[in-house]
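Issue 218. Parser rejects a valid record. Input:
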Amino acid sequence: MPAAIRVALYVRVSTADRQSTENQVAALRGIAERRGWEIVELYNEKGVSGAKGREKRPELDRLLKDASRRRFDIVMAWAIDRVGRSLIDLLGTIAHFEATGVDLYLDQQNIDTTTPAGRLLFQITGAFAEFERAMIRARVNAGLERARLEGKRLGRPRIAGRTEDAIRAARADGKGIHRIARDLGVGVGTVQRVVHALKTR
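Output the parser choked on:
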């Protein structure tokens, strides 16, 4: 007898929805039961906007980590806007599922990547995600080239020579990096860079 297909439910409501997640859970449970899928985990995100990134959505973060661990075979959600409203984050989430071999079922959009037609979603979103990355790279490179043509200095700004001298002197007196940074009002990284330059001379 083949092993049951393991399913994770992801449900979400924002504070603006003035709803509970109970209706979403009930609908998805009914679909899973009719298909013979076994629900192994529920990820219930309450009062969180879909426009927020993964770092501000603890249940989505937990879902993606568990997908990487292959704790389930399919993620079920009520609708695509429950997963995310930011296009870039949404593409990233879907791409993550594909990379980890986890399928996606979205009830309201009739998307089911366990079917050949549904798998087309992964291919399309993967292409869009790569296109978006390429566009970002092109914009960054164009901005750097424009700055170079305008004679702007790229990279971290240099600190004044007297500040570098003060850092060297303080270090020679045996002061620690954090104390030097605090006393001179500069970043710890700046002090580390000057100290490292002393060692390589």
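Fixed in the parser; the record now loads. Residues 88 and 129 are 7 Å apart (CA to CA).
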